[in-house]
Design brief:
The protein has 113 residues and is α/β, with parallel strands linked by helices. It is built from 5 helices and 3 strands.
């Protein structure tokens, strides 16, 4: 990513605990560390960082606290943007609103871990 010399880099992160276990085959804590370390490294290289929270809405429905912890790890490490992805396209507008509300209406005080 650094060799491309783009000012902005997008990172895809697993926000669904099911995918952390079955696809990445790692622990939830290790995934959070990988997210934070990756964001921090890219920020130290002077890049703007967009975190693509893959399957965010599936993850939010399955394990709200963990999905929000992924966003929190990225934010704490300095991510500039958080992209909440409805990767499967199966969320209803009301479900998207419910999950996005903590980030729009006060951030950490309203639901970030």
């Amino acid at each position: 990513m650094l060799e491309a010399e783009t000012p902005t880099v997008a990172l895809v992160a697993k926000a669904w605990d099911f995918h952390v276990d079955t696809v990445l085959r790692t622990s939830l804590d290790e995934n959070l560390s990988m997210v934070a370390d990756s964001v921090l490294f890219l920020k130290e290289q002077g890049r703007e960082v967009v975190l693509d929270a893959e399957h965010f809405f599936d993850g939010y429905r399955a394990n709200r606290d963990y999905a929000l912890a992924v966003l929190g790890a990225a934010t704490d490490a300095g991510a500039d943007w958080l992209t909440l992805c409805d990767t499967n396209g199966g969320s209803l507008p009301s479900q998207i609103g419910e999950a996005a509300r903590p980030m729009v209406c006060g951030g950490r005080g309203q639901g970030f871990s």
